[in-house]
Write a structure and sequence with these properties.
CATH class of the largest domain: Alpha Beta
Shape: elongated
Distance between the termini: 36 Å
Number of strands: 5
Number of helices: 13
Oligomer: single chain
């Protein structure tokens, strides 16, 4: 196995599930019920992640679909809370990515994500510079699982598909990586990740996550 790189999804892999307080703040700001808010939010999200709309245009579309009109103050709050909702980090995965880097592998991020989200992350997360390359879907106008987005990431990392492992919480995105020749693991928990790394033989080339060390480091 000639593995040279590990590529991580951001949402639900490097980050935790959506922050409940921020989600509640978004719902309160729009004045919608939880069900209606989630309906309009997700109906428009792929176009935001694909760069068809910017953050402000995304929320204008949500407002139009819901028959609302957000004030400048509401718009500012929605953009801030939307970013905040996705910025609780999965510290053990972050720690493992740095173990992988320290072992001599390239590491990258490949995420379906919109412009305002990335802007907030770049302002908040200095650790992003530790990754050899970050692919943000809105910059390319394409989304996982389109093959071009994986091939772009591989090209930027300077590795062949069979030299890279991709982690994502969505099986469809992992299948997309595998279809271009990458290795893929569907991420759910650290315990499952360790089991998958062992069962697939990756533990012979990659360091296993030091979950205990990561937990103590963040106490």
């Amino acid at each position: 196995m000639d593995l040279r790189a590990v590529v991580f999804d951001y949402g639900m892999v490097l980050s935790q599930p959506p922050e409940k307080a921020a989600h509640g703040g978004l719902i309160e700001t729009t004045g919608l019920s939880r069900d209606l808010f989630d309906q309009y939010y997700w109906a428009n999200r792929e176009d935001y992640d694909a760069g068809i709309w910017g953050g402000t245009t995304f929320w204008e579309k949500v407002a139009k679909d819901a028959g609302l009109n957000f004030s400048p103050e509401q718009m500012s709050r929605l953009l801030k809370l939307d970013a905040q909702m996705w910025m609780s980090l999965n510290e053990p995965v972050l720690a493992w990515s740095q173990q992988v880097r320290a072992a001599g592998f390239k590491i990258g991020i490949l995420s379906n994500i919109g412009d305002e989200m990335v802007k907030a992350m770049l302002e908040e997360f200095t650790w992003l510079t530790n990754y050899d390359h970050c692919t943000w879907s809105y910059e390319l106008g394409i989304l996982k699982p389109q093959p071009e987005i994986y091939l772009h990431t591989l090209d930027k990392l300077g590795v062949e598909p069979q030299q890279a492992l991709f982690l994502d919480d969505k099986p469809v995105n992992v299948r997309g990586a595998e279809e271009v020749g990458m290795y893929g693991i569907v991420f759910s928990t650290m315990e499952q990740l360790i089991a998958d790394l062992k069962s697939r033989g990756f533990d012979s080339v990659l360091p296993l996550p030091d979950v205990l060390h990561a937990a103590k480091a963040n106490e």
